[in-house]
Structures
1.
Amino acid sequence: MSQDSDRYVIAPPPQAALAVAGTSKLFPVRRIWCVGRNYIEHIREMGQDERAPPFFFAKPADAIVPDGGTVPYPPLTRDMHHEVELVVALKGGGRNVSPDKAPDLVYGYGVGIDLTRRDLQIASREVKRPWEIGKAFDASAPCGALRPAAEIGHPARGRIHLTVNGTVKQDGDLAQMIWNVPEVIAKLSEQVALAAGDIIMTGTPAGVGALVPGDRVVAEVAGVGRLGVTIGPPAV
Ligand code: MN
């Protein structure tokens, strides 16, 4: 620490990290990338072009909320939505990665929720402003413990679902992804140089909807894991 206090003018911010199932060690998070549209039924419910290629946006690493955590209901919205997503955590990176090499870069997989201030996202979209205020707010990226690919392989199918207060709201299958995980990694690596510590939220199936304070949200991907968070009162 004395070396850090010599080097930096303020204390360095804490390293964002994810739990790894079955170990006390953590996965350090560098960036959070998200796929915009990757399940056809969700594209339809949002009224978007079904043939357009997926696109990417980002959230800050410190938006992560761990399993069992509480998400303070964010300001400025009346329509915060849940989007359950398979999370891919990278142990390596590079540019222009081919889909057949992409699995070699994956450390493991987890379950995440791409929380979205839908009213603000849509307002930004309509006036062609960026999406950060709708997507990249505080505590907007709940993510459960990772499971290493060395243990579970590379899931390409399996139920992905989300319940709110015990009622199923989203229910899909990883096989419904338009762009599979290797293709997502390959596409993103054409746009930025990927690196170890990057995680990717891979898009959501249909059934997104609003959350309110007090809601208990449970997200699950078969063979990968489970994530539970509570929506709390607004942050003060
Ligand atoms: Mn999403």
2.
Amino acid sequence: METSVLTAAFERHFGAAPALLLRAPGRINLIGEHTDYNDGLVLPAAIDKEIRFAMRLNGTDRIRLAALDLDDTYEVAVADIAPIPGGHWANYQLGVVAGLLRHGAEVPGFDCAFGGNVPNGAGLSSSAAVECGVAWGLSELLKLNLDRMTLAHIAQKAEHEYAKVMCGLMDQFASLFGRGGHVVELDCRSLEYGYFPFNTDDCRVVLCNSGVKHALGDSEYNTRREECAKGVAILQKANPAITSLRDATLPEIEAAAAEMGEVVARRCRYVVEENQRVRDFTAALGAGRSLAEVGELLYASHAGLRDDYEVSCKELDVLVELSRQAPGCYGARMMGGGFGGCTLNLVATNDVKAFLTHMKEGYQRELGLKLDTYVTTLADGVGELLNED
Ligand code: GLA
């Protein structure tokens, strides 16, 4: 959405010019899935799919929101905000306001119009982009000077309390901390992070959107979190130093497997192995090892998500299998929470076109489904938009 279109829509809705224009990107994650809420390691990046916002303080006590893509509006007094049942889109903004209030900020009435091109339900974290955009925008308008990590935590809490998904920090972190041309490794325990350049001359990150979003996704996500907590409680009996799966080793899990039961043991094993794959991945990047080697880690991650963590689905599995015969593909896996959304594929830059053709034909042939694909560019995190952008 061009800024001129955004500004015009804002003026139509609220009868005044916006005071601030900003953008907040969606994210990919190269590897480290379902590790963030286990104090583990992740390797996300912000991408060139983003939500754009026009905002101003409106001098009243009311929040007025306009979701331009949905052609819908919502209005509420700041003092009356509460989670709206039924998965309402305004929950993400209201949850952020609740978080800022709890943080001690005084939030007056404001106007916000927003829209963008992060596809919904594709696992690219459009909801985190909305949360992070509003959090950063309000921090700017109110001169709160909140650092980005604090904003990420406020945005994450909005997801917990207003959207009822007990997510980790990865999506919000990526939207706020992304850097053009780089992926960023986050240690979700220490909150230390570091950037790795990603050279698109050699290879591109290509997303294949399964086009499905299974309704069970959110509840199964919360269940996985509980299963991991159950595993930790059992591991702790033998070794009180274990406070999360980050501390556990595979032999410790084997020793506790009988008490955990088969399912919880598998969940725990997956998380420990996936953390190791993130370490192996960044080590390989650092050492300049072959893309084929790095790609194998993606296939191994997918196998774990499918068989041990059980968050994949038929459509995602078909896409990963198709990628194995696809021209130029080094590796692929499902990405994000699972139960639908996209697969992430590492594809040789020169072969991207042939790869896309192979995948589209295959998805049509195997499942009779049309495949949307995105060849991503890694982008900067949340920031101000200039009028000409
Ligand atoms: C969702 C959550 C993230 C993370 C991923 C899985 O995107 O919002 O916090 O847990 O799933 O890695």
